[in-house]
Amino acid sequence: MMSAPKKVVLAYSGGLDTSIILKWLQTEYGCEVVTFTADLGQGEELEPARQKAELLGIKPENIFIEDVREEFVRDFVFPMFRANALYEGLYLLGTSIARPLISKRLIEIAAETGADAVAHGATGKGNDQVRFELSAYALNPDIKVIAPWREWDLSSRTKLLEFAEQNQIPIAKDKRGEAPFSVDANLLHTSSEGKVLEDPAQEAPDYVYQRTVHPEDAPNTPEYVEIGFEKGDAVSINGEALSPATVLTKLNELGGKHGIGRLDLVEGRFVGMKSRGIYETPGGTILLEAHRGIEQITMDRGAGHLKDQLMPQYAELIYNGFWYSPEREMLQALIDKSQEHVTGTVRLKLYKGLARTVGRWSDHSLYSEAHVTFEDDAGAYDQKDAAGFIQLNALRLKLIAARNRRLSK
Amino acid sequence: MMSAPKKVVLAYSGGLDTSIILKWLQTEYGCEVVTFTADLGQGEELEPARQKAELLGIKPENIFIEDVREEFVRDFVFPMFRANALYEGLYLLGTSIARPLISKRLIEIAAETGADAVAHGATGKGNDQVRFELSAYALNPDIKVIAPWREWDLSSRTKLLEFAEQNQIPIAKDKRGEAPFSVDANLLHTSSEGKVLEDPAQEAPDYVYQRTVHPEDAPNTPEYVEIGFEKGDAVSINGEALSPATVLTKLNELGGKHGIGRLDLVEGRFVGMKSRGIYETPGGTILLEAHRGIEQITMDRGAGHLKDQLMPQYAELIYNGFWYSPEREMLQALIDKSQEHVTGTVRLKLYKGLARTVGRWSDHSLYSEAHVTFEDDAGAYDQKDAAGFIQLNALRLKLIAARNRRLSK
Amino acid sequence: MMSAPKKVVLAYSGGLDTSIILKWLQTEYGCEVVTFTADLGQGEELEPARQKAELLGIKPENIFIEDVREEFVRDFVFPMFRANALYEGLYLLGTSIARPLISKRLIEIAAETGADAVAHGATGKGNDQVRFELSAYALNPDIKVIAPWREWDLSSRTKLLEFAEQNQIPIAKDKRGEAPFSVDANLLHTSSEGKVLEDPAQEAPDYVYQRTVHPEDAPNTPEYVEIGFEKGDAVSINGEALSPATVLTKLNELGGKHGIGRLDLVEGRFVGMKSRGIYETPGGTILLEAHRGIEQITMDRGAGHLKDQLMPQYAELIYNGFWYSPEREMLQALIDKSQEHVTGTVRLKLYKGLARTVGRWSDHSLYSEAHVTFEDDAGAYDQKDAAGFIQLNALRLKLIAARNRRLSK
Amino acid sequence: MMSAPKKVVLAYSGGLDTSIILKWLQTEYGCEVVTFTADLGQGEELEPARQKAELLGIKPENIFIEDVREEFVRDFVFPMFRANALYEGLYLLGTSIARPLISKRLIEIAAETGADAVAHGATGKGNDQVRFELSAYALNPDIKVIAPWREWDLSSRTKLLEFAEQNQIPIAKDKRGEAPFSVDANLLHTSSEGKVLEDPAQEAPDYVYQRTVHPEDAPNTPEYVEIGFEKGDAVSINGEALSPATVLTKLNELGGKHGIGRLDLVEGRFVGMKSRGIYETPGGTILLEAHRGIEQITMDRGAGHLKDQLMPQYAELIYNGFWYSPEREMLQALIDKSQEHVTGTVRLKLYKGLARTVGRWSDHSLYSEAHVTFEDDAGAYDQKDAAGFIQLNALRLKLIAARNRRLSK
Lengths: 409, 409, 409, 409
Description:
4 copies of one chain form a homotetramer.
Chain A: E1 7-11, H1 16-29, E2 32-39, H2 47-55, E3 63-67, H3 69-82, H4 99-113, E4 117-119, H5 128-139, E5 144-146, H6 148-151, H7 157-166, E6 182-185, E7 190-193, E8 223-230, E9 233-237, E10 240-241, H8 244-257, E11 262-268, E12 274-280, H9 282-298, H10 301-320, H11 326-338, E13 344-351, E14 354-361, H12 369-372, H13 385-408
Parallel strand pairs in A: 1-2, 1-4, 2-3, 4-5
Antiparallel strand pairs in A: 6-7, 7-12, 8-9, 8-13, 9-10, 11-12, 13-14
Binding site for L-aspartate (chains A, B, C, D): 123, 127-128
Domain Arginosuccinate synthase-like N-terminal (chains A, B, C, D): 7-170
Subcellular location (chains A, B, C, D): Cytoplasm
């Protein structure tokens, strides 16, 4: 069994649940707590978290509050989008991709502060516990990880609130009742699950959606946007150069306004059961469409097909929490190699929930009008070559057919 | 070299180009011509093709006109949709999947009529020649295949029309000028390419779209539809049992009305260059979304991930013309095995170009509310199991981290 | 937590360890025990197991002793060999493939005898616990599984022997000391691991090998053998038709005599660490070589390459214990589809540890001397076709090169 | 059609066939010829090629003779061995891997000498024409490639000899008759095919083997060898640091002496038919075994399994001639990433045709005796974790089983 931790770095949102965890760590383990609160673009103020942490007795030097949005998009979101990653064909992995960054900072802060443990607020039923912990162990094999939800006996809302009251943890009024569903958000997406969403036959109520307008309420006029790419990453919008996080922020605004990026999904969790989630990924949905658009003219067929073939495994690794694994890094090396010429501009039309590529151009284009034209191609392509091409591709099929005919006689 | 054919079965649409081919075969090879005209759901009358063939001297017993829509959907489209097949991430393979059926009938008719050759009207630059011919050779290794576009010197529109006039082939008035783009259509899709579409930077003009309304012109009110599945195939719409072709026809109406299924794509052809196509697949786009929806609750994660991993290769095989290949049949066996429980109903919302799953239910469901619930699960799942699950999944990552740490000292 | 089992079916070898488990189950859980002892070809008498079970108080009707060798080879070994399965490039999966069969019989016997639990003697560090239990749960989701090695506190040899003495379990003299390594055996292989083998830098001592002579001691004269195949399975040796288990037995004799099938491997376990094993698979090694030999002439290239690509995942599934999973069954459907024409005969040369294919022939052969010959091929193949084949395969590479040249200017 | 070449760089061996080609190029095209003769370790003197070229009228500045053995092993053989590449499970790709290097030098020499074409002596039936030409076009999209065997009418041995005599090309006495089989050799392997080998049922005659002794004639005493690796490449033998080509030369001596590396294979050619080859790869066979040996302790399971899964496609790309393709380079990036810690030493036993790993050690080892030991592991591994690991891995299988049970009621 794990020996008791002496000092623990907690992934702390400032909310009720992680405040209870903070106090529980202090009381259960009698250990010093360091808090880490990250701005991943979830759209909440961070300073209240500092005040709450102080209120709960955390020393100022043990409170870490950081804006990691640029790092998040540059080092996690963008590398993933180079792969056109979709889990189970549809999910853009918005929650999955944020976890390794949080774990990385927890481990770094543990090293800085001399902590021997980290803690998180993910439950024992979900994927996030796995993602947090695999990343943590991959970065520090000796770290202790505390997952209070798997340990404590605060198994109902009532018990949690009792614990909070007993420990003078302030409870916002609207937290007294239970939320009708659970939410996770960052710059890439907002996910909602649980409670009212647990019956996958029932359409999600309108009020679940928080980040995108209903397509019915989106503008009646389409909007066009041009996204510039360099080596597979979005670097500009409508000609204006932007940083990674700023690109994504801007695309979120556009997508949100046009009702783009909603997904109602039942997915297979790594821990074994299926769950239903409502995802809103407005900017990411546009970005995926645009990235495919620029790859269409700049990426060779052989390269693209290999990428497509490996994408599901890559997405699965991220979903399952293996960002910091050799196989994810190997796949990333392969993917990044493919992006050297993925540079150019894509024009998209946004309208009522749909983002569609309608044009793309690039100095790196492999599209050759000379070869494809229905007009005279001035000798670029000799149609007679196709006869030999077909004959040799057919040869093995002919040999099979001849064998089968021979045997059936 | 191939010896001269004596009797050839021609894939004959009744249009100007294949009428010229018909005459050219007669004059160039002096051979008897059999015509095969198929109703694949392209939306054209077939009887005029009979009259034209007769006019060009084809004996009545050599004119084959058939409605193959049910066979097309049942034996080609549906098996492909079981795989969620998308070529290069986006293309539903509407043209590719029709070619093997045509070749199959050409070869069968050749056997019935004692013909030693088949002929088609695909050019030497495209994928269709490959698809026609690989299928033909796979079904009859001794068949001769004639591809006039690769052989003759009718290399311009002017020469074609001259040939037509010299040979008394009637030319419809609107065929005097050149079409602004080229079209292929069947029950699954309509594709347009060439001419005005050859610059992939330019948005396709509105008049290119023929089968779907512009999303802007689609109804302002969403429409819901429920699709029933059995073993992976759609069998009913809104509770009404329908045959395969009827299901697809009905979905095409729904999709066309709501502007669903438009795609502007630059793709990598098997013959080596990139080309740009505008595809409209209204019913197929709804069907893919619905099939993924029913798989979400009825298909195991391990099964689904394996399917997803192999889908790109399966799609590539169909795109490249290898429908009648052992590897496509092997993949089909794998895919069909996975569909045994893909039975149930999906509810979708159709609106302004978008088809979205909003609910799904099935007696075959693997979704377990008892396991996933945020509420008390009555012991269905022991959260403590997750700790061991994570520890053993982490073990190899810890060993790597410990090794790297050891070496860096 | 699991409620206490009332009646448990134990995988019982009759050896000291499983006898201790038998007694421990009786004392710890106070439950009725049913024993299952299988002849998998491990080369031990089974009747002593019956006597021991009776001695330990098992009712006669609760003692199941069965010869499952034919089922083992026909339904498990042969299907696996159709895939040319090798784990981590080298391991023939001899232990892995036996576990699902044992679990299957445990579950069936539980149903017959009204037992609510099964038990096995695998430790908590190895793969076998996973294989036993995944199979058991896949066949009966409500079964209880008891793995005494993960539960009890008999953590040393001394404690085990004390427990045995206290419970009147007879201890064979040679079991007083510890074995220098641990052994598992069945008709497919013998594996040895642990203790003296734990340092992977040290060559395994000669006395570890039990089933194959040292190559140095093998006959100085090569021996030839001809193996007949039907649909991928070996059905005859030197012209004599044999049952599955008899084929493998005979190949084991041949391989053992010639020192064939030894492997010294460090492998990655599913539970996370690496382990070192010495494997002897004499007949299986010959069979794999022969199966590849017959596939060489009877299997199409496209089919074979797809199989090769998927083999590592198939092997991993078996190694990890997922025999009874949908994805293994899907892969099996694919593999079995590929074997329809894998019928014919292979001639091998056996000599001093090596089995090499030296000839193969089949009515189902796809090898065409007419096509491949250096001599005049009478028009079977037109070398000029190769020019077109190469041009179109090269086209995309030329477009890349032209693009890169253009950019570098 | 290709315009006539003005200056052509010929891959020139100095043998009769390429001498005939040289003269044919001069007479057929009236073009200037540049010869390139490479020492790839084929074991022939190169200076005679210079004299013959001069005799045939090639200007001294147009004669290029080079020792490329180090480049061959370092930049082609070693990268390929990092992947453990085997084509169709068995073939070490000895011919395939040499072609891109030759094409690279042909293209470079063409640039240096202002030539507009290259020529090779591969026939129209084999893979080598494809490999030469795909590489050439990938490196220079505008190069002309001349493949005389596909063009000329010298279709019999008699015609070739007549042409030689008419053109004063000296014919070695032993070339008057036809060779009983055709040979290709380089530092990695010797391949033999054709003529007496064309019946795959017949064992290859002893005299075909040229580079390895018959196992029966190999020493009766095993020999041990230790091979040191750094980042996946062999760098030393028995403790002596050696250059890439020297390592391979030394391993060839060892393998040849012990009869190691013989293969009798029927393989599927890229051009569509099956062919039978006898391959001797003495050093390469040892190297593959050793590389797998060192990976066993230094490579993580996840990394290794991904490599294994992709190996067949990587091997196919090399076999088919796509060395200079983006997808091969992408896979190489993935593979090279995996080799960063593949450093250490392997001990092998060589005996009568067999090379077997018997020990391996490394500072980079991931093998942990503490974790795997049968003895007390001092808490390195908690066996109870396995229970949770199994439960969650089993969960989806249980849900399937429960579903199926429910439906069968």
